[in-house]
What does this fold into?
Amino acid sequence: MSEKFHYLGDLGALARIPENGILSQPIVNTGSMRVTLFGLAKGQEMTGHAASAEAIVHFLAGEIEITVDGIAHTACANSWLRMDPKLPHSLVAKTPASFCLIILR
It folds into this structure.
């Protein structure tokens, strides 16, 4: 990849979903953003937490129940979410699933 740009032809194909647990794969880490792919086995949970900066989540595969600021949503492939900094959220993988997390600094 170039230092001036990053191009990925099929982001979803890069996201590996483990048989058990949660797998995170760093993709980009610059002064202005961090991009990480996550794969979750069915039933895996990320309990309540918050990002210190603005965050974007692009759901790639599977079904995830995500609760943001107390409101539950069912996310699937091509669902998209933007969150303000420090907004509490949690998620549970209803099926094997993957998403791309972008943290904007």
